[in-house]
Amino acid sequence: MKAGWLAVALLAVVSQVAANGQAPAAADPTFQLDFSDPGLSPSQWTLTLRPDGTGHFRSVAGKSPDDAIPGIVAPAVDRDIQVSAAYADRVFAAAARHRWFNEACESHIKVAFQGWKTLTYTGPQGQGTCTFNYSKDREIQDLGDSLEAVAETIVEGARMESLLQHDRLGLDAEMEFLVEAVGDGRAQQVCVIRELLERLVQDDTVLDRVRKRARMLLMQSAT
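Predicted structure:
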């Protein structure tokens, strides 16, 4: 009887392979960074990436102080993103070098609070997670800083989308800030807001300075 059930199970697997043309694939590797800092806006966000550069970003809405400038407070974001293949390679290579984050990341050195960052890897090779405010490992610290800069680009894009709807003149100052942030590394991977920049380039209802800066950022992201 057991042999009969085994034959039926094997037949089912073979039928599935024949129907799909291939065997069921293992789960795709996934990298995730969870960030939390109550002193920032947004105070919490999650960035997920896959090896091909596709991913997702989700954040809570920023808190609005009484004197906040309209459009500056970060709205909630929940959207798919695309980073460059080279950037994704860098992230997953770092995960491999650090045993899929099955190691301590936190330095326990007394430094200023920089926000809690939890790195998580899940994939066929294994899984792991580590959390840190500041890491003595240069690669881990740089990875956290870089991913924060990618998040900054996404959040700036969300702010500009809000301004595009409610305060087009306000785009000028926000775009100037983004260009400066990209120049000094505070914002990275401009490709994550490519669609917005392309819209701005084509929109003759916004200031010409905004369109020129959007075009410049698009050119930089293509190199």
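Summary: Residues 138-166 form the longest helix (29 residues).
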